[in-house]
Amino acid sequence: MGVLDSNTAKWLPLDLSGGRPTIDWVHHEIHEGDHFTVSHVKAMDTVTAHTMTITAPASSVGYIHLVVETELTAAGNWVFTEAPEASAGSALTVYNNKRNSTTTSGTVIYAGAVVWTSAGTNIETHYIGANNPASKLGGGADTREEYILKPSTMYGVRVLNNAATCYSVINAHFYVA
């Protein structure tokens, strides 16, 4: 009997060494059509912020398991907050990573919040690079840096650069389970 299904016809074949190939849970969620990506790029100067707000849906559709990564072509920092006070900004398109799936995420995601009047609960802060605008600096994340979002709650990502004009990108990867 298999771990997930007693029908041995559904089991993956053994490889040449006798092991059974497996995939991790996030990869499984992509195959199921429940994994999503949103990305936004912004040209920045020293007086603007690059922001993204993500509002989790009600728990009846499942919980959002979120990983955020940012990149910045100059030195700076980014902050991840829970329940910030922010205006909506411009709606972003959320893509299902299983490109032939019609499943939607149920999240509301905006870039460029016009007003960020309160920091909310500061969950995480990252500093990116030294103050060297000629360097291409960035940050990355993986599933060990995942947050499971509270239902019906807004979250914010805010990127600030320290010196020169630059470009910033915010990528959010998440699945619903």
Protein architecture, described:
- The chain has 177 residues and is mostly beta strands.
- The protein has a single domain, classed as Jelly Rolls (Sandwich), CATH 2.60.120.
- It contains one helix and 14 strands; from the N terminus they run αββββββββββββββ.
- The chain has one helix at residues 25-32, and strands spanning 35-44, 50-55, 64-72, 76-82, 85-86, 90-91, 95-96, 108-111, 116-118, 121-128, 137-138, 147-148, 154-161, 166-176.
- The strands form three sheets. Strands 1, 3, 7, 11, 12 and 14 form a six-stranded antiparallel beta sheet that branches.
- It is globular.
- The relative contact order is 0.34.
- The mean pLDDT is 81.
Q: How is the secondary structure organized here?
A:
Blueprint: H1 25-32, E1 35-44, E2 50-55, E3 64-72, E4 76-82, E5 85-86, E6 90-91, E7 95-96, E8 108-111, E9 116-118, E10 121-128, E11 137-138, E12 147-148, E13 154-161, E14 166-176
Antiparallel strand pairs: 1-7, 1-14, 2-8, 2-13, 3-11, 3-12, 3-14, 4-10, 4-13, 5-9, 6-8
